[in-house]
């Protein structure tokens, strides 16, 4: 599933970034070599990151 349409970042990429230590959407996007643009995806990315961190 695409999380960020502006950057074409997929859910699996956000999950991997969270596993690598990203604690925020901005950190996850930076690990993907991107940055948040319009911001509509940030709450969804944050939820994915929180879920990954809770599972760890």
In round numbers, the mean pLDDT is 94
**What is Rg?**
10 Å
Spatial strand order of the main sheet: 1-2
As a percent range, the share of strand residues is 5-15%
Helical segment count: 3
Number of strands: 2
How can the largest sheet be summarized?
2 strands, antiparallel
Distance between the termini: 22 Å
The general outline is globular
In sequence order, what are the helices and strands, one letter per element? EEHHH
Low-confidence stretches: none
Structural class: mainly alpha
Helix content: 40-55%
Provide a descriptive summary of the structure in words:
The protein has 56 residues and is mainly alpha-helical. Helix content is 54%, strand content 9%. It has 3 helices and 2 strands; from the N terminus they run E-E-H-H-H. It has helices at 11-19, 25-31, 42-55, and strands at 2-4, 9-10. The chain has a two-stranded antiparallel sheet with strand order 1-2. Helix 1 crosses helix 2 and helix 1 (11-19) crosses helix 3. It is globular, with a radius of gyration of 10 Å. The model has no long low-confidence stretch (mean pLDDT 94).
Key features of this structure:
single chain; 56 residues; mainly alpha; two-stranded antiparallel ribbon; 2 strands; 54% helix; 9% strand
Structure at a glance:
It contains 3 helices and 2 strands. It has helices at 11-19, 25-31, 42-55, and strands at residues 2-4, 9-10.
Describe how the helices and strands are arranged.
Layout: E1 2-4, E2 9-10, H1 11-19, H2 25-31, H3 42-55
Antiparallel strand pairs: 1-2
